[in-house]
């Protein structure tokens, strides 16, 4: 895959993740406001459950963002599109589906 296309894919993925993280932050602020303004009218556990769910989603998004950063580092080093384990070429089809792919399909299946 050429560098320009790889950069565009990674930039798109970074923007998508940043947007999702920002959306989670807005949701949390709204939920906190609603929880404090509704008082006893709601289940006290619901805001905590929702907060834990959002925390789990945010943690997954931060892991994905770290994968984007590793892929950007490989792009800068000239090793993007090659397995971090074996150095084998990762097919463009796989990189189009997951621009942060670090392993070939066979290696990922073994992991």
Outline the fold blueprint:
Layout: H1 3-38, H2 45-77, H3 92-97, H4 105-110
Helix pairs in contact: 1-2
How large is the radius of gyration? 19 Å
Question: Approximately what portion of the residues adopt beta-strand conformation?
Answer: under 5%
Mean pLDDT: 87
CATH superfamily: DksA, coiled-coil domain
- The CATH class turns out to be Mainly Alpha
CATH architecture: Up-down Bundle
Outline:
With 111 residues, the chain is mostly helical. The chain has helices spanning 3-38, 45-77, 92-97, 105-110. It is globular and about 45 Å long.
Q: What this model shows, in words?
A:
- This protein has 111 residues and is an all-alpha fold.
- It has one domain: Four Helix Bundle (Hemerythrin (Met), subunit A), CATH 1.20.120.
- The chain contains four helices and no strands.
- It has helices at 3-38, 45-77, 92-97, 105-110.
- Helix 1 (3-38) packs antiparallel against helix 2 (45-77).
- The radius of gyration is 19 Å and the shape is globular.
- It starts with a helix and ends with a helix.
- 9% of the residues are buried.
